[in-house]
Design a protein that fits this description.
alpha/beta, 2,3-Dihydroxybiphenyl 1,2-Dioxygenase, domain 1, 4-stranded mixed sheet, 8 strands, globular
């Protein structure tokens, strides 16, 4: 078997919350969108990284995903996010911290998703 990509689904009560975090804050771009459909969704992309965002109130209540985004320049990501969208910094990991396992990390959260930004 030859797999090339894992594309997770993320459910929001209001898909605009996900677009603000991923597109406005983190700089992902929208690859495909059906935001005005009866069941709004979109594909967001950053290089080879893809996510599918869905607006689905019931599933959003059931799922509170946590992801790690690995970067080669955590300081650049932190400076951009803390300067433009500090409200997303997770109170438990709001600064770049060297973790016991050797990675530098900080975390973001919105009302649905927790993102840990990591550099090894």
């Amino acid at each position: 078997m030859d797999f090339t990509r894992l594309v997770p689904n993320i459910y929001y009560q209001n898909i605009k919350d996900g677009l603000k975090l991923f597109v406005d804050c983190l700089g992902f771009r929208i690859g495909h969108e059906e935001l005005t459909s009866k069941e709004p969704f979109c594909v967001i992309e950053s290089n080879e990284f893809h996510l599918m965002l869905f607006e689905h109130e019931e599933l959003a209540r059931e799922h509170q995903p946590e992801f790690r985004l690995v970067t080669g320049n955590i300081e650049e990501v932190y400076n951009r996010v803390s300067g433009s969208h500090p409200e997303y910094l997770h109170p438990n990991l709001s600064k770049i911290t060297l973790r016991p396992w050797g990675a530098k990390e900080f975390a973001l959260r919105d009302n649905q998703v927790c993102l840990i930004v990591q550099q090894w």
